[in-house]
């Protein structure tokens, strides 16, 4: 998953902002992973409750449905930062330098356009489930035990907004690379040459040889 | 060219079945009456998830949709009065008339107007009953500790009978029954048939009748206002005929299959005495109604009035 | 312009964006968004005054999809099964399995590659997600193959193809998702995947052995393990059996009593057992953190594709493309078997551009009823049917065929998730390298699918025993 994708750093303001945002993104991604773990524990409790205590967990399905957006959305910017969202690299793999960064700039701008629209759309979705005057502010609740849905619906625009920040930062970085013509811009995932690769590889392997 | 034929998109879900026959009939009638100038384009699940059909109406993504009140009580608190346990409705015709009366109440119309929705017609369903595996309950007391898939008001009713209601999506019901997660399932007959519970069940309750779900068909209010007089007349005048068709087809096609199917599968029928049903009803109905009235009065609905409307109509029909 | 034309133009636009290197999930979402705006604006006759209305409706319609589609119990299996994969890796289970496979079977021609195939098949019994299986074996098996001189592209191809076994051999997230979309018995479907999964593994192994015989300088056999060493490798790999047993107990009913839960819960309990093993093996916070971060990364990548594709699917719904396809299919006058083969070929083409889950979500609502109708309906008896099997059996058979096709799509260019994952784990390999290395396995998969079509017994024997 491009786990070791190369994102360069230096002491520029851009790089510092990249790292500041990365801290937030990593936190979000960890939350997502913990939600997966919680989902597993939830099943254990549900099964144990039903089989040993004759007391099924009320609203088991409702809770799963609440946890899923946490898993599905929170890591989205982290994955974009590390170049982990899949793509065809036939064309971009063949390009170098300015040509490469022009293409990256175009596709990243397209993603930003989409995500701004989706922040709007998912926010509207949240808003329809939210009502300041209602009990628990809820105008839409889960089917079985009536958990308000607005917190889970709010996760989408929040995670997508963070992704927008990440995209703006990447667009700035690509834009600067196009203007200055530099080969290895900071703050964006780079295609790695074989030598760097070998070094990274040695590192991963040795860390697993206990 | 301003004489473009008008086409409405209609968001349903699943596949064409007894539950959607009134919409299919409506589409047929409207097109006939306007010589094809106004058509309903029905989509089964392509336009929205069923729990979000009301959102789609409010956005204006499509002009007509069906949904069930119990999917999202907070979105449509007023019509959940029709899903209260043990209301005593005993025919599709009665369900239809009472639903229409509730739909015509100004408070209910105001509730749905928050979604820019106008209630058009109900999809009357018969009372739910429970199908299960293992020893058939002979009395209501035998429900004690029985794991049963039941949601909403019906779940509360089962709880009061001592059963343990468990939730899951309808599509996981069959597997849960196979694997012993639940011993029994509350559904309307058509759902017992389409979700395969009849394949395992060894018994079925004939007269528990704890309640049903209410699933209206609504239209987008703006789109409705934009209809020409001729189009609106074609739509409005077809509702009654569409519902007649729905009820006769549910009664003849679905219910006529149900009895023989029970016999064919060797499913035993459990019938409780009136006294037992009355005891259970006393335990469930009044507290559920009181809780519903209290909650919805607080939310600003004339809850007592709506409840009385339903109860009085049921009493008048008996 | 007819909605169908809009559908085709927008789809072509999506392909252009994908080829340009736009991340696939967003390219699909973008196509869906543009398509929705177009459809709604077209409805108002392209009146400039109505553009903002069309934009608003399209954005809000698309904005429903991410939350609405991911908050599903059925899809909760995906992260759970990915978590099993990574926990098993950190518990040392994967390595133990690979070591055992190596000592027992690596003496054959192409030994290490064959051992990898069987180790992935064994791992498939605990892993329900193909991509996770490929991801963990890319770390374990590829370095060993490279050490003894395998072509790195082929080594990557073995792992990418081996990973697909995880979705046939139970448990399998994608089989459960199929069962839920078409409302069929999950337990029987999972059972039905077992033999075709083993069968696929044998075909893969056969192919590797033939290649090793034909080509010089292929990977050499790895011999010299004593029987003592072979047996010594077993205890470390044995815990995998405990996990398998746990999951089986959940989904089936081997002792006549009640099973304990649904497949969804079985997956979660399996993950919990592996988690306990990993703790026992000395997993600490650092490793746990890596396991859940890796799980989160893979899960978010898959879910982003899911909602991206589903925005596009929502647009197709408004363009009524599925309806048009259904009408066309039922109007054909070919023999049912020929139509089925055409459908499978169409899956092969469609699958080039889509991921497995997206493809199933997109097509099954239309194709499944059509196939059931071809066979003679849901309730048809075997004797009266076109394919010689009852309705429920046809549902199982077609499910396994579709899942095998969907798995095939995971290794075909230009969009092949398993190949992306392997290339992602191994940065010395480009996606093109992995696609080159996996090409021989297309032949193996074509052979397997042909045999599953010709001999449905391979699929149906096991489920018909219960
Ligand atoms: Na598996
Ligand atoms: Na593919």
UniProtKB/TrEMBL annotation, chain A:
Residues 39-172 form the Tripartite ATP-independent periplasmic transporters DctQ component domain. It holds the Pfam family DctQ. It is found in: Cell inner membrane. Keywords: Cell inner membrane, Cell membrane, Membrane, Transmembrane, Transmembrane helix, Transport. It is a multi-pass membrane protein. InterPro entries: DctQ (IPR055348), TRAP_DctQ (IPR007387). The chain crosses the membrane at residues 21-48, 60-78, 99-125, 145-169. Part of the tripartite ATP-independent periplasmic (TRAP) transport system. The complex comprises the extracytoplasmic solute receptor protein and the two transmembrane proteins. This is TRAP transporter small permease protein.
UniProtKB/TrEMBL annotation, chain C:
It is found in: Cell inner membrane. The chain crosses the membrane at residues 6-39, 74-92, 112-142, 154-181, 187-210, 231-252, 264-283, 295-316, 328-350, 395-425, 437-462. PANTHER family: C4-DICARBOXYLATE TRAP TRANSPORTER LARGE PERMEASE PROTEIN DCTM (PTHR33362:SF5), SIALIC ACID TRAP TRANSPORTER PERMEASE PROTEIN SIAT-RELATED (PTHR33362). It is a multi-pass membrane protein. Residues 13-457 form the TRAP C4-dicarboxylate transport system permease DctM subunit domain. InterPro entries: DctM, TRAP_DctM. It comes from the Bacteria. Keywords: Cell inner membrane, Cell membrane, Membrane, Transmembrane, Transmembrane helix, Transport. Part of the tripartite ATP-independent periplasmic (TRAP) transport system. Pfam families: DctM (PF06808). This is C4-dicarboxylate ABC transporter permease. The keyword Transmembrane applies.
């Amino acid at each position: 998953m491009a786990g070791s994708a190369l994102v360069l750093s230096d002491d520029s303001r851009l790089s510092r902002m990249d790292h500041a945002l990365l801290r937030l993104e990593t936190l979000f991604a960890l939350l997502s992973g913990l939600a997966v773990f919680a989902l597993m524990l939830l099943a254990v409790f549900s099964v144990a409750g039903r089989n040993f205590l004759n007391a099924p967990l009320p609203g088991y399905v409702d809770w799963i449905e609440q946890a899923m957006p946490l898993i599905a959305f929170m890591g989205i910017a982290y994955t974009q930062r590390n170049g982990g969202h899949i793509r065809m690299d036939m064309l971009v793999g063949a390009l170098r330098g300015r040509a490469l960064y022009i293409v990256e700039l175009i596709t990243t701008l397209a993603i930003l356009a989409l995500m701004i629209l989706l922040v709007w759309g998912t926010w509207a979705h949240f808003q329809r489930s939210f009502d300041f005057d209602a009990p628990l502010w809820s105008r839409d609740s889960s089917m079985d035990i009536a958990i308000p849905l607005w917190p889970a619906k709010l996760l989408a625009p929040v995670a997508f907004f963070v992704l927008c920040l990440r995209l703006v930062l990447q667009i700035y970085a690509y834009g600067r690379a196009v203007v200055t013509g530099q080969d290895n811009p900071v703050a964006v995932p780079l295609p790695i040459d074989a030598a760097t690769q070998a070094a990274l590889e040695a590192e991963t392997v040795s860390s697993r040889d206990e | 060219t301003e004489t473009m034929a008008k086409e409405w998109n209609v968001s349903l879900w699943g596949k064409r079945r007894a539950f959607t026959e009134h919409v299919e009939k409506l589409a047929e009638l409207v097109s006939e009456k306007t010589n094809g100038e106004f058509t309903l384009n029905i989509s089964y699940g392509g336009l929205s998830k069923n729990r979000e059909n009301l959102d789609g109406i409010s956005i204006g993504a499509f002009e007509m949709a069906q949904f069930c009140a119990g999917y999202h009580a907070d979105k449509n608190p007023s019509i959940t009065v029709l899903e209260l346990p043990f209301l005593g409705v005993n025919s599709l015709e009665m369900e239809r008339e009472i639903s229409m009366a509730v739909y015509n109440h100004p408070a209910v119309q105001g509730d749905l107007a928050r979604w820019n929705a106008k209630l058009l017609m109900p999809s009357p369903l018969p009372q739910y009953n429970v199908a299960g595996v293992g020893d058939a309950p002979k009395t209501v007391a035998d429900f004690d500790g029985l794991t049963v898939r039941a949601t909403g008001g019906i779940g509360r009713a089962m709880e009061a009978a001592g059963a343990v209601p468990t939730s899951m999506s309808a599509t996981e019901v069959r597997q849960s029954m196979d694997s012993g997660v639940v011993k029994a399932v509350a559904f309307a007959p058509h759902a017992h048939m389409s979700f395969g519970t009849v394949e395992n069940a060894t018994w079925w309750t004939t007269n528990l009748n704890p309640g049903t779900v209410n699933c209206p068909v609504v239209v987008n209010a703006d789109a409705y206002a934009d209809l020409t007089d001729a189009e609106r007349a074609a739509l409005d005048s077809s509702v009654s005929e569409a519902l007649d068709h729905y009820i006769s087809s549910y009664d003849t096609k679905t219910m006529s299959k149900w009895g023989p199917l029970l016999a064919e599968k060797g499913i035993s029928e459990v019938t409780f005495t009136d006294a037992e049903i009355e005891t259970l009803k006393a335990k469930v109905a009044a507290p559920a109604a009181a809780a519903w009235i209290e909650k919805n009065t607080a939310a600003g609905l004339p809850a007592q009035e709506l409840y009385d409307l339903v109860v009085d109509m049921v009493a008048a029909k008996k | 312009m007819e909605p169908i034309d809009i559908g085709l133009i927008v789809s072509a636009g999506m392909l252009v964006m994908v080829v340009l290197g736009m991340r696939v999930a967003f390219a699909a979402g973008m196509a869906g968004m543009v398509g929705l705006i177009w459809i709604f604006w077209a409805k108002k006759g392209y009146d400039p005054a109505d553009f903002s209305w069309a934009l608003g409706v399209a954005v809000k319609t698309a904005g429903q999809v991410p939350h609405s589609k991911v908050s599903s119990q059925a899809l909760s299996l995906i992260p759970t099964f990915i978590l099993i994969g990574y926990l098993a890796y950190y518990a040392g289970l994967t390595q133990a399995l690979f070591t055992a496979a190596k000592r027992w079977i690596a003496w054959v021609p192409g030994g290490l590659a064959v051992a990898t195939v069987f180790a992935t098949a064994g791992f498939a019994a605990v892993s329900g997600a193909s991509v996770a299986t490929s991801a963990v074996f890319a770390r374990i098996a590829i370095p060993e193959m490279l050490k003894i001189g395998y072509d790195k592209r082929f080594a990557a191809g073995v792992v990418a193809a081996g990973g697909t076994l995880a979705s046939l051999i139970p448990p399998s997230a994608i089989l459960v998702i199929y069962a839920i979309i078409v409302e069929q018995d999950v337990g029987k479907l999972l059972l039905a995947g077992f033999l075709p999964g083993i069968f696929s593994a044998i075909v893969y192994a056969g192919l590797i052995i033939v290649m090793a015989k034909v080509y010089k300088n292929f990977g050499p056999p790895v011999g010299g393990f004593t029987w003592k060493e072979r047996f010594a490798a077993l205890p470390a790999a044995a815990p995998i059996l405990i996990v398998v047993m746990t999951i089986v107990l959940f989904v089936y009913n081997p002792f006549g009593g009640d099973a304990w839960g649904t497949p969804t819960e079985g997956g979660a309990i399996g993950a919990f057992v592996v988690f306990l093993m990993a703790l026992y093996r000395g997993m600490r916070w650092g490793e746990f953190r890596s396991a859940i971060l890796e799980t989160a990364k893979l899960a978010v990548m898959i879910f982003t594709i899911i909602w991206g594709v589903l925005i596009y699917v929502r647009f197709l719904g408004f363009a009524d493309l599925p309806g048009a396809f259904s009408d066309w299919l039922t109007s054909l006058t070919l023999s049912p078997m020929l139509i089925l083969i055409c459908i499978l070929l169409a899956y092969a083409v469609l699958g080039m551009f889509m991921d497995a889950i997206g493809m199933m979500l997109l097509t099954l609502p239309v194709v499944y009823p059509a196939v059931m109708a071809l066979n003679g309906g849901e309730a048809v008896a075997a004797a009266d049917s076109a394919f010689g099997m009852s309705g429920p059996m046809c549902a199982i058979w077609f499910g396994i065929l579709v899942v095998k096709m969907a798995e095939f799509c995971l290794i075909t260019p230009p969009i092949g998730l398993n190949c992306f994952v392997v290339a992602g784990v191994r940065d010395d390999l480009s996606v093109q390298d992995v696609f080159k290395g996996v090409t021989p396995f297309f032949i193996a998969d074509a052979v397997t699918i042909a045999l599953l079509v010709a001999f449905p017994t391979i699929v149906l024997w096991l489920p018909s025993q219960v």
